[in-house]
Amino acid sequence: MPNQNTQQHKLRQQKLKQAVDARIDAAKQEKGLVLVITGNGKGKTTSGFGMVARAVGHQQQCGVAQFIKGTWDNGEKNLLEQLGVEFHVMATGFTWETQDKNADTLAAQEIWKQCQRMLQDSLLDVVLLDEITYMVTYGYIELEEIVAAIESRPAMQSVIITGRAAHRRLIEIADTVSEVRNVKHAFESGIKARKGIDW
Ligand code: ATP
Ligand code: MG
To answer: At residue 107, does pLDDT exceed 60?
Structure first.
């Protein structure tokens, strides 16, 4: 019996390999991607930075804009700036606590200018726009301005957008969209955010 199973397994794997190879052959297009990582679970920003780390590991040039991290200590910035990644962090420390809409709008516009420049820079292979979805939700940056900047970027540049509740326009223009679902999170059991894990 084990022999027959081994034989069946081998046949199944061969079929699977043929199907996968055919799909790999069919994928011929080469272009920079738009990726959206959204949803309520943990892992959106870290996924974005995972891709930046991959790109840096291949000697690619990367730019990062972080929209709501403010002045908090930031492990990704500490590491990646040393490796030559261009880094911009929104100035005010915007969080769900801030109440000064004018100051936040100004700060958002300031960092958005840097993003527009990065989205025209053909030397940048990957641009991460971390938590930009909130700027759309709050109306601090025009959605169509973001769409236009992304759509007119250099053909080989990839753009990663992270944040909860990504607007459907952003999902429409994306090539790859993942939604991270919250199954449980330590914070809900009263556990403090941890250095190295949460920031
Ligand atoms: P990470 O930066 O760890 O990848 P994220 O980008 O998916 O998380 P955000 O919504 O940006 O999540 O929130 C950032 C912070 O909030 C992180 O410290 C993260 O651990 C925490 N967090 C993420 N999801 C949840 C959740 N469902 N409940 C409570 N805290 C969360
Ligand atoms: Mg995040």
So the answer is: yes
